[in-house]
Amino acid sequence: MNENIFDEPFFKKLNRLNFLIKMSLSQGANGGRKSLAKGTSVEFSDYREYIQGDDFRRIDWNAYGRFEKLFIKLFMEEREAVFNIFLDCSRSMDFGEAKKSKVALQLTAAISYIVLNNMDRLQIHALKDNDIKTIKTGSGKGSFQNLLKDLNHIQFENKTEISTAVRKKDIRNRGVSIIISDFFCKESIEDAIKYLAFKKQEVIVIHLLAREEMAPSFDKMVNLIDSETEQSIKISMTPNVLKLYEKTFNNFCKDIELKTKKYNGNYVQIISDEPLEKIVLQSFSSKGLINKV
């Protein structure tokens, strides 16, 4: 990772993107998204009858002329959205000819830039050893360079149980929660998604995989070693074994997708050798997660 991780043309494209949020926001600091609260922005929302103490400047005198009652105009208040990015930092993420770890950091940086550029608030959490560590929190595009430096110090090691780690984060505001992981863990991911949905989060599950994991090219006898537990197993990679692996792997991915959709979340599968621009501009767009502003 470095501060020149994106070239200038890609930066310009990121500048025109924003995450779509379905929910209305009723909490948080002033920002660029529509809130359930009524405020003083320029976008008209509704009328209500005047009560003592209201601002006279908001009285609609045309309405008074028609109804002989005082009404004030209500306007839609704008609030910031809070984005939580949960990044799996286990050792299995540091795998692949096109390393998943590098793509995970690049993707975290790209998402962060879009969030900060649109006046939303960002929190990045590293998940490791069944625990969670907040490595960055802030708002405003000016904090992006420091964010890149913080991402540069992340190490991918040991193992992580995603659900246990995510549920240690106390979330108090509505917002968007994004999990980036290969989900090679013993726990069910459903507990994490269910927890985030209960906390009124729009959940985005980014399933990051290496090409070798989707279509292994091994043949004959191989010794497979678990990168996190260092347990090994010898297996003969016959056509039948490869066919069974493919079926099991597809079921594994489909199960995560179904559990995500069960709680109205969005599932995005990404292969680590895909260009970052394609991931952000095409994969996210096809899922209706971003739009151009």
Write the layout of secondary structure elements.
Elements: H1 8-14, E1 17-19, E2 30-49, H2 61-67, E3 71-79, E4 82-88, H3 100-117, E5 121-128, E6 131-139, H4 144-152, H5 162-166, E7 175-181, H6 190-198, E8 201-209, H7 211-214, E9 220-225, E10 232-237, H8 239-262, E11 266-271, H9 276-286, E12 290-292
Tell me what the structure shows:
This protein is of the alpha/beta class and 293 residues long. It has two domains: 8-23 and 81-292, von Willebrand factor, type A domain (Rossmann fold, 3-Layer(aba) Sandwich), CATH 3.40.50.410; 30-79, no CATH class. Helices cover 32% and strands 32% of the residues. A six-stranded mixed β-sheet has the order 6-5-4-7-8-11, sandwiched between helices. Helix 3 runs antiparallel to helix 4. The longest helix has 24 residues, at 239-262. The protein is elongated, with a radius of gyration of 23 Å. The two termini are 28 Å apart.
Within the CATH hierarchy, at the fold level, what is the topology of the largest domain?
Answer: Rossmann fold
The CATH architecture of the largest domain is: 3-Layer(aba) Sandwich
Gyration radius (Cα, Å) is: 23 Å
Number of strands: 12
Widest sheet: strand ordering: 6-5-4-7-8-11
CATH homologous superfamily name of the largest domain? von Willebrand factor, type A domain
How large is the share of residues in beta strands?
Answer: 25-35%
Number of domains: 2
Highest-level CATH class of the largest domain: Alpha Beta
Helices and strands: which structural class?
Answer: alpha/beta
Low-confidence segments: 28-42
- The helix content is 25-40%
- Sheet with most strands: 6 strands, mixed
Pfam family, one: DUF58
InterPro entries: DUF58, vWFA_dom_sf
Domain DUF58: 46-246
